Amino acid sequence: MISxxxxxxxxxxxxxxxxxxxxxxxxxxxxxxxxxxxxxxxEVISGIAKFFPDSSILVGKKCAFVTNxxxxxxxxxxxxxxxxxxxxxxxxxxxxxxxxxxxGSLVR
Length: 108
Hints:
The chain is mainly β and 108 residues long.
């Protein structure tokens, strides 16, 4: 169990996926470029490739991301956020929001 104060430390923001592409030599990873309403997009590396063989369908989606994690190097790239999803052995569902929600919006 965590306290509400611990939970409040997690920053969840809405990001617009600008690009999505497979990372060479990886069966699991996709490289996303995500707009959070900041000066420049962030690179997000995610292990969701199995569920999106055509990664282009992610472009234009607005999803929830944890944005205050320390950047993490993964296969020569630096992931600057983490996309939120629910998963099982044979499914994955992203936490998407309507297109009318501005990127950068804070989930409270």
